[in-house]
Amino acid sequence: MTVSRRRLLHLALGSATSLIAGNRRALAGSSAPADRLHWLATADSGSGDRHQFANGRAMAALHRRDPVDLVIMAGDNIYDNGDMREVAAKFERPYQELLKAGVPFHAVLGNHDIRSNNGAGQISYPGFGMKGRWYTLRRGPVEFFMHDSNVDWPKQMSWLKSSLAASRAPWKVLVGHHPIYSSGLYGDDREAIGRLTPLLRRHGVQLYINGHDHNYERSVPINGTTYLTVGNGGAALRPIVPGPNSAKAVSTYGFASLHADPDSLTIEAWNSSSQRLDRARLNRSGVLI
Protein backbone atom coordinates (compact mmCIF):
# COMPACT_ATOMS: atom_id res chain seq x y z
CA MET A 1 0.00 0.00 0.00
CA THR A 2 1.36 3.45 -0.94
CA VAL A 3 1.20 6.19 1.70
CA SER A 4 1.39 9.78 0.49
CA ARG A 5 4.01 12.19 1.77
CA ARG A 6 1.23 14.38 3.18
CA ARG A 7 -0.15 11.41 5.11
CA LEU A 8 3.31 10.56 6.50
CA LEU A 9 3.77 14.14 7.70
CA HIS A 10 0.33 14.05 9.28
CA LEU A 11 1.13 10.83 11.12
CA ALA A 12 4.49 12.18 12.36
CA LEU A 13 2.91 15.41 13.59
CA GLY A 14 0.13 13.48 15.30
CA SER A 15 2.64 11.25 17.09
CA ALA A 16 4.67 14.18 18.43
CA THR A 17 1.49 16.03 19.45
CA SER A 18 0.20 13.00 21.36
CA LEU A 19 3.49 12.68 23.24
CA ILE A 20 3.37 16.28 24.44
CA ALA A 21 -0.36 16.06 25.13
CA GLY A 22 0.42 13.17 27.46
CA ASN A 23 2.94 15.35 29.29
CA ARG A 24 0.39 18.19 29.52
CA ARG A 25 -2.17 15.83 31.06
CA ALA A 26 0.38 14.65 33.59
CA LEU A 27 1.37 18.23 34.39
CA ALA A 28 -2.23 19.02 35.31
CA GLY A 29 -1.95 16.82 38.38
CA SER A 30 -0.06 13.94 39.89
CA SER A 31 -1.61 10.56 40.56
CA ALA A 32 1.13 9.78 43.10
CA PRO A 33 0.01 9.10 46.68
CA ALA A 34 0.37 12.12 48.94
CA ASP A 35 2.94 10.40 51.17
CA ARG A 36 5.29 8.82 48.61
CA LEU A 37 6.94 9.51 45.26
CA HIS A 38 9.04 7.62 42.72
CA TRP A 39 11.06 9.65 40.25
CA LEU A 40 13.97 9.25 37.85
CA ALA A 41 16.82 11.73 37.42
CA THR A 42 19.06 12.25 34.40
CA ALA A 43 21.25 14.99 32.97
CA ASP A 44 23.53 15.72 30.02
CA SER A 45 21.14 13.52 28.13
CA GLY A 46 20.29 15.26 24.86
CA SER A 47 22.83 13.62 22.56
CA GLY A 48 20.31 11.83 20.38
CA ASP A 49 22.72 8.93 19.99
CA ARG A 50 22.53 5.23 20.85
CA HIS A 51 23.56 5.84 24.46
CA GLN A 52 20.62 8.15 25.12
CA PHE A 53 18.24 5.73 23.41
CA ALA A 54 19.61 2.85 25.52
CA ASN A 55 19.06 4.91 28.66
CA GLY A 56 15.54 5.74 27.51
CA ARG A 57 14.75 2.05 27.03
CA ALA A 58 16.15 1.17 30.46
CA MET A 59 14.13 3.98 32.08
CA ALA A 60 10.97 2.73 30.35
CA ALA A 61 11.70 -0.85 31.44
CA LEU A 62 12.03 0.31 35.05
CA HIS A 63 8.73 2.20 34.73
CA ARG A 64 7.03 -1.02 33.60
CA ARG A 65 8.37 -2.84 36.67
CA ASP A 66 7.93 -0.01 39.16
CA PRO A 67 5.76 2.87 37.89
CA VAL A 68 7.42 6.28 37.83
CA ASP A 69 5.64 9.50 38.79
CA LEU A 70 7.98 11.93 37.03
CA VAL A 71 11.43 12.46 35.52
CA ILE A 72 13.81 15.24 36.55
CA MET A 73 16.25 16.52 33.92
CA ALA A 74 19.22 18.44 35.33
CA GLY A 75 20.21 20.30 32.18
CA ASP A 76 21.98 19.98 28.84
CA ASN A 77 18.73 18.67 27.52
CA ILE A 78 19.61 19.29 23.85
CA TYR A 79 23.20 19.15 22.61
CA ASP A 80 25.16 21.00 21.39
CA ASN A 81 23.39 24.33 21.35
CA GLY A 82 19.91 23.89 22.85
CA ASP A 83 18.36 24.06 19.37
CA MET A 84 14.64 23.33 19.65
CA ARG A 85 14.58 22.10 16.06
CA GLU A 86 16.29 18.99 17.44
CA VAL A 87 13.83 18.29 20.26
CA ALA A 88 12.20 15.34 18.49
CA ALA A 89 15.52 13.57 17.88
CA LYS A 90 17.00 14.34 21.28
CA PHE A 91 14.00 14.16 23.60
CA GLU A 92 10.71 12.97 22.13
CA ARG A 93 12.02 9.85 20.41
CA PRO A 94 14.51 8.64 23.07
CA TYR A 95 11.81 8.90 25.77
CA GLN A 96 8.76 8.14 23.66
CA GLU A 97 7.59 5.20 25.77
CA LEU A 98 7.61 7.23 28.98
CA LEU A 99 5.95 10.18 27.25
CA LYS A 100 3.23 8.00 25.74
CA ALA A 101 2.60 6.58 29.23
CA GLY A 102 1.96 10.14 30.45
CA VAL A 103 5.05 10.38 32.67
CA PRO A 104 5.83 14.11 33.08
CA PHE A 105 9.34 15.52 32.64
CA HIS A 106 10.58 18.61 34.46
CA ALA A 107 13.85 20.24 33.39
CA VAL A 108 16.33 22.93 34.30
CA LEU A 109 18.70 24.63 31.88
CA GLY A 110 22.31 23.56 31.35
CA ASN A 111 25.14 25.58 29.84
CA HIS A 112 24.51 24.07 26.39
CA ASP A 113 20.79 24.87 26.58
CA ILE A 114 21.28 28.62 26.94
CA ARG A 115 23.27 28.87 23.70
CA SER A 116 20.01 29.28 21.75
CA ASN A 117 17.98 32.34 22.72
CA ASN A 118 19.17 31.98 26.32
CA GLY A 119 17.02 28.85 26.71
CA ALA A 120 13.70 30.61 26.06
CA GLY A 121 12.52 27.92 23.66
CA GLN A 122 13.04 25.19 26.22
CA ILE A 123 11.29 27.14 28.96
CA SER A 124 8.17 27.52 26.80
CA TYR A 125 8.22 23.93 25.47
CA PRO A 126 5.49 21.92 27.31
CA GLY A 127 7.47 18.68 27.20
CA PHE A 128 10.12 20.06 29.56
CA GLY A 129 7.54 21.04 32.18
CA MET A 130 9.24 24.29 33.16
CA LYS A 131 7.28 27.01 34.95
CA GLY A 132 10.08 29.50 34.34
CA ARG A 133 13.83 29.84 34.45
CA TRP A 134 13.59 28.74 38.07
CA TYR A 135 10.54 27.33 39.82
CA THR A 136 9.28 25.05 42.58
CA LEU A 137 7.47 21.76 42.08
CA ARG A 138 5.64 19.91 44.87
CA ARG A 139 4.78 16.26 44.27
CA GLY A 140 3.74 14.02 47.14
CA PRO A 141 6.15 14.39 50.07
CA VAL A 142 8.86 16.04 47.91
CA GLU A 143 9.37 19.68 46.96
CA PHE A 144 11.80 20.32 44.13
CA PHE A 145 13.56 23.65 43.85
CA MET A 146 14.52 23.86 40.19
CA HIS A 147 17.16 26.52 39.72
CA ASP A 148 19.20 27.94 36.86
CA SER A 149 22.85 27.60 37.82
CA ASN A 150 23.92 29.63 34.76
CA VAL A 151 22.74 33.17 35.52
CA ASP A 152 21.22 35.91 37.67
CA TRP A 153 22.22 34.88 41.20
CA PRO A 154 21.07 37.96 43.15
CA LYS A 155 17.46 37.71 41.96
CA GLN A 156 17.47 33.93 42.08
CA MET A 157 18.85 33.78 45.61
CA SER A 158 15.99 35.90 46.87
CA TRP A 159 13.54 33.41 45.32
CA LEU A 160 15.43 30.40 46.67
CA LYS A 161 15.68 31.76 50.22
CA SER A 162 12.00 32.62 50.41
CA SER A 163 10.88 29.36 48.76
CA LEU A 164 12.96 27.19 51.07
CA ALA A 165 11.78 29.13 54.12
CA ALA A 166 8.14 28.65 53.09
CA SER A 167 8.41 24.93 52.34
CA ARG A 168 6.79 22.43 54.68
CA ALA A 169 7.68 19.42 52.53
CA PRO A 170 9.20 16.42 54.33
CA TRP A 171 11.79 16.14 51.54
CA LYS A 172 13.51 19.10 49.93
CA VAL A 173 15.50 18.59 46.73
CA LEU A 174 17.50 21.31 44.97
CA VAL A 175 18.12 20.69 41.26
CA GLY A 176 20.67 22.55 39.12
CA HIS A 177 22.98 21.78 36.25
CA HIS A 178 26.36 22.55 37.77
CA PRO A 179 27.89 20.49 40.58
CA ILE A 180 28.60 21.82 44.04
CA TYR A 181 30.69 18.90 45.29
CA SER A 182 32.17 16.66 42.59
CA SER A 183 35.08 14.27 42.02
CA GLY A 184 34.65 14.60 38.25
CA LEU A 185 36.36 16.86 35.72
CA TYR A 186 35.07 20.15 37.14
CA GLY A 187 35.64 19.30 40.80
CA ASP A 188 34.23 21.14 43.80
CA ASP A 189 32.81 24.62 43.14
CA ARG A 190 34.11 26.72 46.00
CA GLU A 191 31.94 29.70 45.10
CA ALA A 192 28.78 27.56 45.05
CA ILE A 193 29.81 25.87 48.30
CA GLY A 194 30.05 29.28 49.96
CA ARG A 195 26.85 30.59 48.39
CA LEU A 196 24.52 27.62 48.66
CA THR A 197 25.54 25.09 51.30
CA PRO A 198 24.74 27.29 54.33
CA LEU A 199 21.25 27.73 52.87
CA LEU A 200 20.84 23.99 52.29
CA ARG A 201 21.91 23.24 55.83
CA ARG A 202 19.68 25.91 57.37
CA HIS A 203 16.56 24.65 55.62
CA GLY A 204 17.25 20.92 55.80
CA VAL A 205 17.68 20.22 52.08
CA GLN A 206 18.50 16.52 51.96
CA LEU A 207 19.48 16.19 48.29
CA TYR A 208 21.11 18.19 45.49
CA ILE A 209 20.81 16.78 41.93
CA ASN A 210 23.08 18.00 39.14
CA GLY A 211 24.79 17.13 35.88
CA HIS A 212 27.64 18.84 33.97
CA ASP A 213 30.20 16.22 34.99
CA HIS A 214 29.58 13.29 32.64
CA ASN A 215 29.50 10.48 35.18
CA TYR A 216 27.47 9.15 38.08
CA GLU A 217 28.47 10.10 41.60
CA ARG A 218 26.75 9.97 44.98
CA SER A 219 28.49 11.79 47.77
CA VAL A 220 28.51 10.88 51.41
CA PRO A 221 26.08 13.15 53.27
CA ILE A 222 27.76 16.50 53.90
CA ASN A 223 26.06 18.43 56.71
CA GLY A 224 22.84 16.55 55.98
CA THR A 225 22.87 16.94 52.18
CA THR A 226 23.75 14.24 49.62
CA TYR A 227 25.12 15.50 46.30
CA LEU A 228 24.02 13.39 43.33
CA THR A 229 25.61 13.78 39.90
CA VAL A 230 23.63 12.15 37.07
CA GLY A 231 25.50 13.53 34.06
CA ASN A 232 25.66 10.07 32.48
CA GLY A 233 22.47 10.46 30.46
CA GLY A 234 23.87 10.28 26.92
CA ALA A 235 26.73 12.72 26.30
CA ALA A 236 30.28 11.39 25.97
CA LEU A 237 31.45 10.02 29.31
CA ARG A 238 34.50 11.30 31.17
CA PRO A 239 36.65 9.37 33.64
CA ILE A 240 36.16 9.89 37.36
CA VAL A 241 38.41 9.06 40.29
CA PRO A 242 36.53 8.73 43.59
CA GLY A 243 37.46 11.46 46.04
CA PRO A 244 37.15 11.88 49.81
CA ASN A 245 33.46 12.83 49.54
CA SER A 246 32.53 9.97 47.17
CA ALA A 247 30.26 7.18 48.34
CA LYS A 248 29.97 5.82 44.78
CA ALA A 249 31.52 7.13 41.58
CA VAL A 250 31.43 5.43 38.16
CA SER A 251 31.79 6.45 34.55
CA THR A 252 29.03 4.53 32.77
CA TYR A 253 25.78 5.46 31.07
CA GLY A 254 22.70 5.33 33.25
CA PHE A 255 20.30 7.26 35.48
CA ALA A 256 19.07 7.44 39.08
CA SER A 257 15.81 6.15 40.53
CA LEU A 258 14.56 7.65 43.79
CA HIS A 259 11.76 6.64 46.17
CA ALA A 260 10.52 8.95 48.92
CA ASP A 261 8.13 7.94 51.67
CA PRO A 262 7.32 9.64 55.00
CA ASP A 263 10.44 8.33 56.71
CA SER A 264 13.11 7.59 54.12
CA LEU A 265 14.58 8.45 50.73
CA THR A 266 16.09 5.59 48.70
CA ILE A 267 18.57 6.40 45.93
CA GLU A 268 19.41 3.80 43.30
CA ALA A 269 21.61 4.05 40.22
CA TRP A 270 20.98 1.92 37.14
CA ASN A 271 23.05 1.54 34.01
CA SER A 272 21.66 1.49 30.47
CA SER A 273 21.60 -2.32 30.56
CA SER A 274 19.19 -2.25 33.53
CA GLN A 275 21.82 -3.36 36.04
CA ARG A 276 21.80 -1.71 39.45
CA LEU A 277 25.03 0.10 40.29
CA ASP A 278 24.33 1.75 43.62
CA ARG A 279 21.82 1.92 46.47
CA ALA A 280 21.58 4.10 49.55
CA ARG A 281 18.85 5.09 52.00
CA LEU A 282 18.55 8.34 53.94
CA ASN A 283 16.40 9.37 56.88
CA ARG A 284 14.70 12.76 57.13
CA SER A 285 17.81 14.25 58.70
CA GLY A 286 19.81 13.27 55.61
CA VAL A 287 21.71 10.56 57.47
CA LEU A 288 22.41 7.16 55.87
CA ILE A 289 20.38 4.33 57.40
Q: From the coordinates shown, what is the CATH architecture?
A: 4-Layer Sandwich
The helix-and-strand class reads alpha/beta
**CATH H level: which superfamily?**
Metallo-dependent phosphatases
Q: What is the mean predicted local confidence, pLDDT?
A: 92
- Assembly state: single chain
Roughly what fraction of the amino acids lie in strands?
Answer: 15-25%
Assign the CATH topology. Answer: Purple Acid Phosphatase, chain A, domain 2
Give me the count of strands: 13
The total number of structural domains is 1
> Major sheet: size, sense and barrel closure?
7 strands, mixed
Question: What is the approximate shape?
Answer: globular
How does this model look, in words?
- With 289 residues, the protein is α/β, with parallel strands linked by helices.
- It has a single domain (36-91, 104-283), classed as 4-Layer Sandwich (Purple Acid Phosphatase, chain A, domain 2), CATH 3.60.21.
- 28% of the residues lie in helices and 24% in strands.
- It contains seven helices and 13 strands.
- The strands form two sheets. It has a seven-stranded mixed sheet with strand order 4-5-6-7-9-8-10, covered by helices on one side. Strands 3-2-1-11-12-13 form a six-stranded mixed sheet, with helices on one face.
- Strand 11 and strand 12 form a beta hairpin.
- The longest helix has 23 residues, at 5-27.
